[in-house]
Amino acid sequence: MRTDRHPAPGKKIQLMATCLCDGFFDDVAIATVQVLEHLGCEVSFPEGQTCCGQPAFNAGDWKSSRKVVRHCVQTFSGAEPVVVPSGSCAAMLFHGAPLEFEEESDSDEIGRLASRTWEISDYIVNGLGIDSWPGRFPGRIAFHRSCHTRETDSGPASRKLLESIDGVEVTPFGEAEQCCGFGGTFSVTFPSISSAMGHLKLEHALKEKPDYLVSGDMGCLMHLGGMATREGRPVEIRHVVQVLRDSLRNGGLIS
Amino acid sequence: MKAQPIDVFARDLEEEVRHAVLDGSSSGYDKRLASLTSDFADPDLLRRTAGRIKQHTLENLDTYLPRVEEKLIANGVRVHWATDAEAARRTVLGIMRENGADKIVKSKSMATEEIALTPFLEKEGIESLETDLGEFIVQIDHDHPSHIVKPIIHKNRRGIARSFEREGLGAYDDRPETITARARTFLRKKYLEAQVGLTGANFLVAESGRMVLVTNEGNSRFCLAGTDIHIAVTGIEKIIPRERDLPLFLSLLGRSATGQQLTVYTEFISGPKVEGQPDGPGQMHLILLDNRRTELLASKCRDILRCIRCGACMNVCPVYRQASGHAYRSVYPGPVGAVLSPLLAGNKFPELADLPKASSLCGACKEVCPVDIPIPDLLLRLRDRAKQEGVKSPGTPPMGGWAYMASKPSVWRASLAAGKVMNYVPMNLIPVPALRAWRHSRELPPWRGGAFRKWMKIHAKEKGGES
Q1: Chain B window 73-92: which residues touch A at a Cβ cutoff of 8 Å?
Q2: Which of A102, B41, B72, B325 could be a cystine partner for B146, CB 3.0 to 4.6 Å?
Q3: Predicted ipTM of the assembly
Q4: Is domain B43-294 classified as CATH 3.30.420.40?
């Protein structure tokens, strides 16, 4: 999916928290900071950040989306890697944005931001060269490889980190390659199909009786978790980076 | 809130059909995957190579089309160009009339579905019989195919046995072997009665002018062996440059469609019967169908013309699997159809502009596509086009206000704070359609807008204190 990304220069990074973490899942953004700082990164949080522009991009309103992406380019100026705790928002910046800027005069600037953007697990494994994770996290994990990490290095990176943790058991489940049905605006534009897809995903994942449903995208987890709660069978949802952070805590490596 | 037609179709789908499609699409998934991954060191490289060959061919059709025509004519095949469906249908009819023919046996062909050939011929008093078992069942049920490789994926054997009983093909018996045997007996004599065998073509080799047909039932061979006239109808995008490209495409087609290393029958058709050849049609026609393909070639969605009709994208598409093929209201369903159908519709694009919306953009289709078509990108391009052309899209949240908020940090931060109202007001009183649609089947987690920013400020201060 991408071939042009730069190796991470130094350990200064800019955090893109994502709008979902800004609005609902503050602990995921906190865990991202804690994990990166544990790895010796200097994390800055550009205050002007809002969203990656994906909702409008997917809705077909590219004009509105470009407005938001241009804002992103301004906000995340500089040369540091931009690290995102979401495969979906990262893919928006390194794949979606270049597509909608093909014929725009500022497509070069978009390309530069694209090549600096990393999904968090991909950054840890392929940017920083870390392939096993210390600490301890006891639990059986059903790992949903979110779809926007298809054909990227993020899925294998997340899996590698999770499987290396002492105490973690990653359980396989049926039709794992299928989408959970979130799909951003798709979830509200196609509520019946979205729910049917989510239901199927839950059936397969929960059949294995996991302690946690884990993914690299809070969109998938908000959808699946929200459905499970509504159906009266709540499930513990965790972002990969929360598992990494909790593993460090359990191992006494951070406070 | 107004709903999307495909979502409504899926919601109202009979359980029996939904299960047939869900199971039928996933069955063979492991076999398809294994046949690619166990036989080749780098199947992705094969997919990308095949994609590049097709893309090259499309971008040089002005070279390859005259070349293939020249070769076909030299091989004794009569070549007809059809700019649209009507021209293609008239050409078939013209050949029939010219030869005083009134019966066709037909092998499976999406191109003839696209031009709605059979209903047209029937009106003209010509009997056109489908000989592929699935298509035969579709025909006796006056139904439409719902999958390009498995046309009756939406049916089950009980329904088929009832149809056979109704058509006088024998008392109710839903054993697959009985159904197949009865169809075989019925069809066998039809091959001998017909004067014309009609097929599609999976590939046309520019270098040699050979047509290549793949089937699993051998019915196309009967069509060709039993009749004097062969008419093939195919889109102009079916060309591949060289004979040596065939192994790559045939290897990918069988594996991607059904998990077979090769289909049971692969026919290489070089031309009409030559002296000393006992069987085969003495007259051979190829109708090359444009039907807006050149228009499509000029668009940014031209990649979709690489498609070799394997059906892999619909088998893995979670939306197709929930909604079924008929939800797409067009000949080509699923991901490929969601791109192709609106484009082939010409000025009726707005009527099918909802199809590209019916995708979570999960990319499963691209991942399995044997010619590496970036289907999600094409769906997105068509969404942009629909918006620019002012096509209304029911249920799509308006994005203008959001874009304003998301490009003004102060407004964004204010709305993060304001979102807290959701925690105090009963959700069903909040008149936001998207929120209602969300809560159709899901709870929303508590709003914690701004909490991370607060934490980060304190954290940064503490960090500053440390150093």
Answers
A1: none
A2: B325
A3: 0.96
A4: no
